[in-house]
Amino acid sequence: MSKKIVILNGSPRKTGNTSALVKAFTKGAKSAGNSVIEFFLDSMNIHGCKGCFGGHSSKEYPCVQKDDMDKIYPAVKECDVIVLATPLYYWNMSGQIRTAIDRLFALEEGDGNLLRGHDRTSALLMAAEGHGFDDVLLYYDHLMEHLRWKNLGHVLAGGNEDIGDIEGKPEIQKAFELGKSIQ
Ligand SMILES: Cc1cc2nc3c(=O)[nH]c(=O)nc-3n(C[C@H](O)[C@H](O)[C@H](O)COP(=O)(O)O)c2cc1C
């Protein structure tokens, strides 16, 4: 059965290494009949969580802040798969994607939890200059455990600094295959 996939792309580089993984993943996922919506977070107006605990998951727009997260909430609510795509920044995800993840908390607040569980699955796509992915993998595992989303896999592309470095490398094919494996 085809799946609805949401990709949160946290790279600021539209033609960079993370975006190359996203492109390959999307090609694979679509070839298997899935639908894909990508949010290029750096081009969106998304503010940091205020920590007000005032969200209401049952509302169409669950957060008290009104910004471009209102484009993401409806897509996340109805999706089956959420892909986190990001460059490695200081052993972590980029600020762009961390900010969006915090704001997803609004879907956990109020009347019902629309974020956790719901048979959702997830995957992680990352690019980095080096290979220091251990800390971010621990974070991702904790996130998956909390959200009760099944991890479908990672593609961790180390050794890539400049735009274009990743072209022709095996991780591009791995991202394609991961996308294609979703059915
Ligand atoms: C602010 C910043 C922090 C970074 N921190 C790391 C890091 O901790 N480890 C690493 O291997 N690469 C680090 N890098 C390199 C990027 O992860 C690398 O250039 C990656 O390919 C960028 O992906 P993109 O093309 O999708 O933007 C950093 C780059 C920037 C701009």
Tell me what the structure shows.
The structure is a single chain. The chain has a single domain (4-46, 67-105, 114-180), classed as Flavodoxin domain (Rossmann fold, 3-Layer(aba) Sandwich). It is built from 5 helices and 5 strands, in the order βαβαβαβαβα. With 183 residues, it is an alpha/beta fold. The model has no long low-confidence stretch (mean pLDDT 97). A 5-stranded parallel sheet has the order 2-1-3-4-5, with helices on both faces. 39% of the residues are buried. Bound molecules: flavin mononucleotide. Flavin mononucleotide is lined by residues 11, 13, 16-19, 87-91, 127-130, 132, 160-161, 163.
Layout of strands and helices, then pairs:
Layout: E1 4-9, H1 17-31, E2 35-40, H2 69-78, E3 81-87, H3 95-104, E4 121-127, H4 134-147, E5 150-157, H5 170-180
Parallel strand pairs: 1-2, 1-3, 3-4, 4-5
Bound molecules: flavin mononucleotide (FMN).
Task: Give a short synopsis of this structure.
The protein has 183 residues and is of the alpha/beta class. The chain is built from five helices and five strands, in the order E-H-E-H-E-H-E-H-E-H. The radius of gyration is 16 Å and the shape is globular.
